[in-house]
Write a structure and sequence with these properties.
Length: 428
């Protein structure tokens, strides 16, 4: 009964979409367990180029069942559009199931996300403005609307009325913005229910049945471990649990079901939105990486902040998740860059530290201590065999492996599915 969790091991956008599409060849079930359409997972394969926000990246393999777990917050409009786009490109979405326990992102959540960001002024978090944070606030506050609720019309209306009174009070009185109409919102919920009802299920049963039948389940993480609500650089985090623990609560599986935890790392580091980033490069090298790798957000189009690989953060993330495998992406981006640096420690108040600080304010003060290696000659781009990786690049990978404290089993050398070096399959 093997389930494997795949987590982003940095600040998101590590290339999880590419890796999950690649690994899904061996999976029967692929399930998203956290986050919402703040995620943007790029997949490039024979069907085309896709930026998935909610549908699991395993959808392209015809043998998979794809689940959206209870831990995900769902914008029904975005999900429907994504399903239509997939259908238009000949991808069968009838294999998709959405948890009846997943919470909806409502239009007032999106409005509040933007209003709260504006109110934060120069302390804004740089959220994706998709309503994700406010939707999780309501989930924890027990005033959320779940997918299952929109199928139960008689109880939906009074519930919505009660919630909307509170939201409209906040929106109009605190933020001086326009209220939402109960009738319009109710009609939209009914329409979402009509469209999505064939897909809404108790998906945990599907997952548990698959485990009982000894099928392989991939649990697709979104965001990154350093954006985890508890373990990330709070408050510059997202409002869910992208780390491995979130996979169990986000799908209703026992921790005993997890046979392996895979962390996806980029060969350097990026971050979108505000928050501390010790290895950030605000110079021409950072800009060169951004342009070469086209580091612009798959969801918002924002320029991603770029920097060197931060091994202090990487090791912390490996520990928080208990990684059994590391998978390295975008090695090809560092081809031709000379020298290449890796942060191996921080300097803080005259001392050298190797523990990742708990506080964003402390991390903000940390100065990176770099180890420098000459760039490598030759190219790793599109390479599919370990023998064809230039020696210098291989040394870099080995050094990252030592610093992370976990085996690197897969090296990705391009965005397309075959552009991958499998050193040892993480799924036996
Ligand atoms: P995710 O959110 O973790 O799925 O990552 P994103 O899709 O937001 O960003 C990763 C970007 O890197 C996408 O544009 C991918 O197509 C691209 N990508 C993934 N792996 C590789 C790789 O090994 N090399 C290159 N050059 N691009 C890659
Ligand atoms: P994937 O799955 C990178 C960041 C936002 C912001 C912070 C809070 O593609 O790796 P939110 O909208 O979640 O309240 O924003 O989290 N963020 C991501 N950064 N990749 C993501 O997802 C992200 N999802 C959220 O930029 O800093
Ligand atoms: Mg992304």
């Amino acid at each position: 009964m093997p389930a494997y969790v795949i987590v982003g091991a940095q600040w998101g956008d590590e290339g999880k979409g590419k890796i999950i599409d690649y690994l899904s060849e061996k999976a029967h079930v692929v399930a998203r367990y956290s986050g919402g359409n703040n995620a943007g997972h790029t997949v490039i394969n024979e069907k085309g180029e896709f930026r998935l926000h909610l549908v699991p990246a395993g959808i392209f393999w015809p043998h998979t069942t794809c689940l959206i777990g209870n831990g995900v917050v769902v914008d029904a409009e975005v999900l429907w559009k994504e399903m239509e786009e997939l259908r238009a490109k000949d991808v069968d979405v009838s294999r998709l199931q959405i948890s009846d326990k997943a919470h909806l992102i409502m239009p007032y959540h999106i409005a509040l996300d933007k209003l709260e960001e504006q109110a934060r002024g120069n302390k804004a978090l740089g959220t994706t403005s998709r309503g994700v944070g406010p939707a999780y606030v309501d989930k924890a506050g027990r005033s959320g609307i779940r997918l299952g609720d929109i199928l139960d019309h008689p109880s939906l209306l009074p519930r919505l009325q009660h919630v909307l009174e509170q939201k409209n009070f906040l929106i109009t009185r605190l933020y001086n913005a326009e209220p939402f109409s109960l009738e319009e919102l109710y009609e939209r919920c009914i329409q979402w229910g009509e469209r999505l009802s064939p897909y809404i299920h108790a998906v945990e049963n599907t997952a548990r049945r698959a485990l009982a039948e000894n099928k392989v389940i991939l649990l697709e993480g979104a965001q990154g471990s350093l954006l985890d609500l508890d373990h990330g650089t709070y408050p510059y985090v997202t409002s869910s649990s992208p780390t491995a623990g979130g996979a169990c609560t986000g799908l209703g599986l026992s921790p005993m079901a997890i046979a392996g935890i895979f962390g996806v790392y980029k060969a350097y580091t990026t971050r979108v939105g505000a928050g501390p980033f010790p290895t950030e490069l605000s110079d021409s090298v950072g800009e060169a990486i951004r342009q070469k790798a086209w580091e612009y957000g798959a969801t918002t189009g924002r320029a991603r902040r770029c920097g060197w690989f931060d091994a202090v953060a990487a090791r912390y993330s490996a520990t928080v998740n208990g990684l059994t495998s590391a998978l390295l992406t975008r090695l090809d981006v560092l081809d031709g860059i000379d020298p290449v640096k890796v942060c191996v420690a921080y300097r803080l108040n005259g001392k050298t530290i190797t523990e990742f600080p708990s506080s964003a304010a402390v991390l903000e003060k940390c100065q990176p201590v770099y180890e420098q290696t000459p760039g490598w000659k030759g190219s790793t781009a599109n390479v599919t065999s370990l023998d064809d990786i230039p020696e210098g690049a291989l040394r870099y990978v080995k050094r990252l492996e030592e610093l992370i404290g976990c085996r690197i089993d897969v090296i990705s050398t391009g965005p397309r599915r075959p552009e991958t070096v499998c050193i040892r399959s993480p799924i036996p």
